[in-house]
Amino acid sequence: MATNRTFTMIKPDAVENGHIGAILEKITASGFRIVALKLTQMTVADAKEFYAVHSERPFYGELVEFMSRGPIVAAILEKENAVEDFRTLIGATNPADAAEGTIRKLYATSLGENAVHGSDSDENAAIEGAFHFSGRELF
Ligand code: CMP
């Protein structure tokens, strides 16, 4: 059965470009409740571990460098059907393919720097949320 939580990051490009407020507004206006939230920065080691599933992909080095180059906003979000609904809200991985009105269409600049992360399964949402937050940071 689907759980009702997902994990997201506002990535360094969107933070650098001043989109934190607009993205959080779009998330909450779309019916997601913020369960946990922080401004933080991943070390190179953190990013390597977080994206270990992509370690054999040609873009892994670029991805690790990008995700550790500046602050991110990490959040756990709650809503019925959270994983799927959030992926609809953010749009396709490549902003060129993202639907009008989606967060990536509005705020992402490229496939590599695509503004936001959204978990792809309930299992990964739990793993990724636990990577960034302790139990006492969830509300
Ligand atoms: P996301 O799905 O949040 O997490 C994995 C990221 O890898 C993905 O977003 C993209 O930003 C990035 N990515 C996927 N495919 C490529 C690619 N071909 N070149 C560069 N980056 C990529």
From TrEMBL:
Which metal ions or organic cofactors does this protein require, according to UniProt?
Mg(2+)
Instruction: List locations, semicolon-separated.
Output: Cytoplasm
Question: Which GO BP terms, alphabetically?
Answer: CTP biosynthetic process; GTP biosynthetic process; UTP biosynthetic process
One GO molecular-function annotation for this sequence? nucleoside diphosphate kinase activity
The highest taxon in the source lineage is Bacteria
Q: Which SUPFAM superfamilies match?
A: Nucleoside diphosphate kinase, NDK
EC number(s)?
2.7.4.6
Q: Which catalytic reaction applies to this protein?
A: a 2'-deoxyribonucleoside 5'-diphosphate + ATP = a 2'-deoxyribonucleoside 5'-triphosphate + ADP; a ribonucleoside 5'-diphosphate + ATP = a ribonucleoside 5'-triphosphate + ADP
Tell me the InterPro entries matching this sequence: NDK-like_dom, NDK-like_dom_sf, Nucleoside_diP_kinase
Which residues make up the binding site for ATP? 11, 59, 87, 93, 104, 114
Q: Where is the active site?
A: 117
Q: Which UniProt keywords apply?
A: ATP-binding, Cytoplasm, Kinase, Magnesium, Metal-binding, Nucleotide metabolism, Nucleotide-binding, Phosphoprotein, Transferase
> What CDD domains does UniProt report for this protein, alphabetically?
NDPk_I
This entry carries the following GO cellular component terms, namely: cytoplasm
Q: Where is the Nucleoside diphosphate kinase-like domain?
A: 3-139
SMART domains on file: NDK
A Pfam family: NDK
Q: What does this protein do?
A: Major role in the synthesis of nucleoside triphosphates other than ATP. The ATP gamma phosphate is transferred to the NDP beta phosphate via a ping-pong mechanism, using a phosphorylated active-site intermediate.
Q: How does it assemble?
A: Homotetramer.
Q: Which family does it belong to?
A: Belongs to the NDK family.
The protein's name is Nucleoside diphosphate kinase
